[in-house]
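Subject: for your reference before the review

Hello V.,

The reviewers asked for a structural picture of the protein, and I figured it would be easier to keep everything in one thread rather than splitting it across files. Below is the amino acid sequence we used in the manuscript, unchanged from the supplementary table.
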Amino acid sequence: MSKPPVIVLVPVGASEPPLDKLLAEADVTVVRTADELRAAQETSEILFINDFKTTLLREVGPGNLRWIHTSSIGVDPLLTPEIVNSDLLVSNSRGVCERPIAEWVLGVLIMFAKDLRRTIELQQERRWLHRETHPILGRRVVVVGPGPVGRETALLLRAAGMNVTIVGRSQRTDPVLGQIQSLDSLDEILPTVDDVVLTLPLTEQTAGMFDAQRIHRMRSGANLINVGRGAVVVADDLLEAIDDDLLGGAALDVFDHEPLPEQHPFWSRRNILVSPHASGDLVGWRGRVVDVFTENLKRWKAGDELHDVVDLTKMGVSTTSTNA
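And here is what came back from the structure prediction:
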């Protein structure tokens, strides 16, 4: 069988991902700019997005594409009316980043509970200050968003001995996770937990979900962890809550605008952890997402059903695509 033409979209200035396995299955054209993408679409129906923050599809449109695969779990760049309302197949790279993100969340929660950041600060000051810390066992956590990352996170936190409540769009029973509470119950849950973990995608419904009103529903001294999308949290409202000592701390791996500007006040708050959108990036992840796409491409060539197809109609339309 002849090799199908495949477009690989990578960020401007970035090196190409390891494409050896893909090159054995496809004729690859690497593009970085709108003009290059527009030209490549004239001869290819398949696009592999290796740039999760790209806005090029909003500028160029899907053209003659029939299938788009993204290296991320999130599909923010694809939530445009033209794509959502089309017959385009969209798939993502499930199975690559979920466990690493869950491990990052667990590490952050241990850091908060054991006050490890303060321990490092005291070591730098050469101060011996004995303190008491909190247990992980029985810690009450709510995970908001039972998607792939939320599922993996909830299971890992439970394995570590935490009491995890899961909140999704609707109340239901999951064969693995058990009971999932509806978003309607979130405001009642927030005052009862020690930590709030956000694993939500960015949609019309989730943008700005955690504003001042909802943050004030959280228990005094609770921690907010966001590994979903930056715009789910209203940054100014979170900052005000931190400065007023309403929250114990925040750990943020995603932001409304990335990179986070140098002058942003998040950098200077000792109880805010700023992480450069890297919670899911294990060594070798770029090769793993190429492998995931290559295996799906083999299914495409054989006429088989693709793995990890995403139903964009359930996510709505987004007006921004600054995060992934």
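For the response letter, the relevant points are probably these. The radius of gyration is 21 Å. Confidence is low (pLDDT under 50) at residues 319-324.

Happy to draft the paragraph if you're swamped.

O.
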